[in-house]
């Protein structure tokens, strides 16, 4: 592996850049097909809209002393990371087919977004319904490195396209730790098993999706 590839790999918390969606500079665009429908009905009882977007409260921290931050699921009231003062944030882990990616094996990509784009997605599904039915062009507005970068979304007309089921990222990309492992993580001494980003042992990864595979 060349140095640049190694740098890219370690920049992404051990995941290879393959599989990560990105628009690098101002005005860059890509056309994608989301693997998430968006609104999928209403919650029983409250009648609030129900969504299939993978949105989680997570913590970012260096769990194993490697110097790289990992994503850890927040456990709410019983969360040791919250108690230790690590602030959780709301993150969305969008999975999509990047239609501009020429290499078919690398077309399914992951894009982690925060509050602004979560709201954008809620707006899009409110207006357009099932978002797996259309291609969406995404345009970056903001220069490389700018903290004010935003994204615009342009849904296209409905068209047929086969989309795979999105992967469950909890237990692989998003670590789901019990109390004991949370404490180890806070102290930076959690042992991450190789090729699988969870704490190992108790959670069989039946899909065979490990941290080293795409995402
Ligand atoms: Zn928490």
Question: Could you explain the architecture of this structure?
Answer:
With 215 residues, the chain is an alpha+beta fold. It has a single domain, classed as OB fold (Dihydrolipoamide Acetyltransferase, E2P) (Beta Barrel), CATH 2.40.50. The protein is 16% helix and 27% strand. It has 4 helices and 10 strands, in the order H-E-E-E-E-E-H-E-E-H-E-E-E-H. Strands 1, 4, 5, 6, 7, 8, 9 and 10 form an 8-stranded mixed beta sheet that branches. Strands 2-3 form a two-stranded antiparallel sheet. A hairpin with an 8-residue loop joins strand 4 (55-61) and strand 5 (70-73). It is globular. The structure holds zinc ion (ZN). Zinc ion binds next to helix 2.
Architecture blueprint of SSEs:
Blueprint: H1 3-11, E1 29-34, E2 39-42, E3 49-51, E4 55-61, E5 70-73, H2 80-83, E6 89-98, E7 108-113, H3 115-128, E8 134-141, E9 150-158, E10 174-175, H4 179-186
Parallel strand pairs: 5-10
Antiparallel strand pairs: 1-6, 1-8, 2-3, 4-5, 4-6, 6-7, 8-9
The site of zinc ion has 7 residues, from helix 2.
């Amino acid at each position: 592996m060349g140095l640049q590839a190694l740098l890219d790999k370690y920049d992404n918390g051990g995941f290879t850049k393959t599989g990560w969606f990105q628009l690098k500079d101002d005005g860059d665009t890509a056309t994608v097909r989301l693997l998430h429908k968006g609104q999928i009905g209403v919650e029983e009882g409250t009648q609030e809209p129900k969504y299939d977007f993978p949105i989680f409260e997570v913590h970012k921290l260096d769990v194993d002393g490697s110097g790289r931050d990992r994503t850890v699921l927040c456990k709410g009231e019983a969360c040791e990371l919250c108690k230790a003062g690590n602030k959780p944030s709301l993150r969305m882990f969008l999975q999509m087919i990047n239609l501009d990616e020429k290499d078919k094996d690398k077309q399914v990509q992951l894009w982690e977004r925060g509050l602004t784009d979560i709201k954008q997605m809620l707006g899009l599904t409110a207006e357009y319904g099932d978002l797996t039915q259309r291609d969406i062009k995404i345009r970056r507005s903001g220069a490389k490195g700018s903290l004010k970068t935003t994204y615009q979304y342009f849904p296209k007309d409905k068209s047929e396209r086969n989309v795979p089921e999105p992967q469950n990222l909890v237990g692989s990309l998003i670590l789901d730790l019990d109390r004991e492992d949370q404490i180890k993580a806070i102290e930076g001494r959690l042992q991450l098993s190789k090729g699988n980003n969870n704490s190992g042992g108790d959670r069989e990864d039946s899909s065979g999706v490990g941290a080293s595979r795409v995402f």
